[in-house]
Specification:
Elements lengths: L22 H14 L29 H4 L11 H7 L5 H14 L8 H12 L9
Helix pairs in contact: 3-4, 4-5
Amino acid sequence: MRRNVSVTVQLKMDLAVDLGKAEFPRTLEWLLRSGLGGLLNASPDSVALIAADDPLGELTKAPDLTPVLEPRGEIAVIWAADDVRRLRPELSRDQAIQVLRFCEQHHNPDDGINWHCLDLVAEQLFGRSAEGVIP
């Protein structure tokens, strides 16, 4: 019996320096289709670029989880270290991630994670800030 199965993977690839932002998704799709051959469905949406992290920032694509979650009837709200650092610019990226992890593990499910939660946890973990303002 044949069936379509969605698989989510993370790939780390060495890319040619001259590959541009517009070419990247098409090239990636072509490489996957040629490498996986007949395993991929012929429909164009059988390969979806969800996110890309490029140290140079040229090919970076912010995460879009919609293609993964929508078919399952789910959504996601994403908080980033940069959000925490908007409140607390003096925190390092690692400290901001600590705030996010704490919020994820200990937030009140009735209230969720919000600016107030981020601010309170940052203060709890790293003390008061003279600069912090809730957006």
